[in-house]
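Recap from last week: sequence in, structure out.
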Amino acid sequence: MLRWIRQQLGFDPPHQSDTRTVYVANRFPQHDHYIPQKFADNRIISSKYTVWNFIPKNLFEQFRRIANFYFLIIFLVQLMIDTPTSPVTSGLPLFFVITVTAIKQGFEDWLRHKADNEVNGAPVYVVRSGGLVQTRSKNIRVGDIVRVAKDETFPADLVLLSSDRREGTCHVTTASLDGETNLKTHSAVPETAISQSVSSLEAIVAVIECHQPEADLYRFVGRITVNHCEEEIVRPLGPENLLLRGARLKNTKEIFGVAVYTGMETKMALNYKSKSQKRSAVEKSMNTFLMIYLVILLFEAVLSTILKYAWQAEEKWDEPWYNQKTEQERNSSKILKFISDFLAFLVLYNFIIPISLYVTVEMQKFLGSFFIGWDLDLYHEESDQKAQVNTSDLNEELGQVEYVFTDKTGTLTENEMQFRECSINGVKYQEINGKLVPEGMAEDLPDAVDSNLSEEDILFLKAVSLCHTVQISYDQADGLGDRQANGILHQMEYYASSPDEKALVEATKRIGVTFNGNNGETMSITSFGKLEIYKLLHILEFDANRRRMSVILQTPSGEKMLFTKGAESSILPYTKTGEIDKTRMHVDELALKGLRTLVIACRHFTPEEYIEIDRRLHEARTALQQREERLADVFSYIEKDFELLGAVGVEDKLQEKVQETIEALRMAGIKVWVLTGDKHETAVSVSLSCGHFHRTMNILELVQQKSDSECAVQLRRLDKRIKEDHVIQHGLVVDGASLSLALRQHEKLFMDVCRNCSAVLCCRMAPLQKAKVVRLLKTSPEKPITLAIGDGANDVSMIQEAHVGIGIMGKEGRQAVRNSDYAIARFKFLSKLLLVHGHFYYIRIATLVQYFFYKNVCFITPQFLYQFFCLFSQQTLYDSVYLTLYNICFTSLPILVYSLFEQLVHPHVLQNKPALYRDISKNALLSCKPFLYWTLLGFCHAFVFFFGSYLLMGEDTSLMGNGQMFGNWTFGTLVFTIMVITVTLKLALETHFWTWMNHFVTWGSIAFYFIFSLFYGGIIWPFLHTQDMYFVFVQLLSSGSAWFAIILIVITCLFPDVIKSVFYRHLQPTNTQKTQLNRNGIGISCLDSMCCFSDGEKACAPVGRMLDRMIGRCSPTRVGRSWSTSDPYYSNDRSILTLSQVEATPC
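Predicted structure tokens:
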């Protein structure tokens, strides 16, 4: 029970031993002194909270916010001492904010729990009690024997025991882990491979000893001890014996494996970065502003306290005749009295810190996030998937992205290769209707075109069909002979080590040379109806140094020959015969088309040559020392003197509009890095085809570095080259091993090289390396905002590390989607997510934050000024009900609706002009200048409110028809009324996109204030102890002078804002403001719309034309509108779905 509680609270102790012992089928030793090891269960947890820690953890996170903590202190102060206002004025808003935020975050975490439950509740089969039992994934224990069928994912990290094949092998794809789609072969030890039934598996007596869990996907060290025929047999275990959670079983009917790592201890889960609270740049700016306003508050409180005691230095003000002190007050400590007065002033002015700002921001983020899911442009019809928002706290961060880190496989590409063209013996061919057609010939060729293929052409096709490591799956038969006899070869399915191999083998099959299979000893093909069987002698595996792979075969005639394929740079220099110049020219042409090119060659061996080759290969492969170096020497000896056969061009099918999306991001000032676990050549090819690398770009490489010194030399060489060729654009390619060396001691130099490159490609990256690269950019001196996007479990770490993480709903499972902040179906949707939604969210919330501080400065500054006229007696200017409802009711809805619907320009314009994204980059709207503007504007308006009202009433002026004068509460109510109207109309001036909801809440808020005040002050409420406001508001509104003062002061406050906006738009307009102006009309037309006419002309258009003439920029045209869908510029006069073309018509 104690262990379970500690697990729930996240305090489960680490393992004490460096190794773990796993008893297969949980057959524990029977002796008494054995103590079983404790292992994690098989649950995957991506949520932040549990039922037990939600309240304390959520409260801790919320009170880390300065405003929340501050209001908690104020609330406690109001409870402890006698203050001018009731504790309810601080406690009620604080409780409301904390509750709403907790509900929102709890709901989001409940969605994560729901997604986790889907994974943890997936059905699996385990061997228990002599049979196959169905259970849930979360119930798998370490030691359980698990059965996995074809195309299923492994529910835990399993050591393979047996498969449906006699040799105990199976094929898996790890695309969701490392991005590679090639089939990997895994094998069982011979002693367990023979156990293919449930009963024989349960009878196995075996013990596995292995290391404790570690994140490295490619490392596993262990051993298995099997009791076989009363003898203990010990076999080593390595990565080839381990089936990783998240990988998928292919080309194998079923396997049985024993669970060694489960749940959050699996390698897939260990590659997840621990989930942390992400905080947006806007929230950090809010905290900075709050600290500044806290300093202002403390200054005002200290100044008021000092001035109070300075004023009371005179005896007549210290103890006036109408307010005599008690004996206790006279004898009380002056220090305690000073502190008490300071705290009282602190409570009086505390509303300068807007607690309701946080709850409004939370509501805006939560409600605004629904627009992403509702956007039909982000809906993928083929897969029936819409965009998802997993964390709404980062909406505005979408408008601040400076770096995008993207995966390649499944994110930029569809992960589908297609054969396009080839060059055979110096002649270019295209595949048309399953036939090879020379380039330039018509498509309607005679059916006998294949009979015209020469021997060289057929040899080329055979080489392509034989030089690979492709595996075959047959759906309806068990043996190769049966498959052929039953005539179901057309049902075969190819599984390749890389997508290009599969595309090539499928292409030769369509043309007429069909690969039938490889049983480890022979390879068979059907060449235009004739079955040919080749003996497989040796495979020279692909490696990054050689950049080619070869097979040595014995032909049906008994001849020994080698077929090879690889990059042109690794084959053409070693070629002696063939059409070398023509082929090189064709390869360049194919590459310019964005195709991935491979060159095909062969070599014939004499019997003596083959004997020598076979001897050297055997010696190298059985060497215990320097095996890799010896094999490299032998390969170099074999792979030379080639006869060139030709070249092929294959295309990795990109997702739709990837190139346009990357280009749009570049125009928006966003740098794109591609981080992939794929091979160097494949990654570069895709980068070229998707526009990440341009053909004219100088590609620099930092690959295959062996030491720190070698890496440093190469980095300095690259840095020098970039500085010498600064006119040319550069692209950098770096692999995982070289990156590790670069980051170890040369981080600054590496970052300098990267920053001077237009595009960076990192290949052969482990999942945690991707996260390290993202962290490297995040923590650089510039502190840029980063975004990571990927589709597989190998991308989860970088998705969680980046400021914003986006998951692609692809073919590689849902791990990335479950751990992301946002999820979209295709990469092309990223442009609208950032350029439109990000732009809107940022300008909305930036204005919301600034406006909140502005209206609270307007609110509390008159209270501070009033103390100069009441002997700093801490008398409130406003009634306590007004203090409580100002931020909650009177001014809250207009800014909330504004922050949900505001659009400076139409979404289509933002997409068509990505450069507009630069206007809001680097937190431009929350920088020092806008902050000072809004703050000073608040103080200026507050001074006008207070002293404008004071000039009207301050000299005992009678404003009533009966000669009666106004009092203290009437003065405060007049100031409050002017303030509510002014701050509401100020927001109206800032609004560019008006909907019926904007009109309703703007004018409705003002009307509600008047109606509420009439009822509140016009009725005697029995439950109120005092009612200072009785009949005050009615009396105020009965004065014509008061109405005149309200109108005059409001205009005095707002008119300079209008003039300032007009001049700034004409003298220093931003790109966004330029776009707002009509193309055909130079004039203002409508700068800050407040309402719209039905014909599309806005109410302020005449004013705009008048101002044009005043400043000497009269336009000879006026703007009219006709509704159309043919223009990229749209009006914001009507519904977002209505398109409007702008035309010029004569005045």
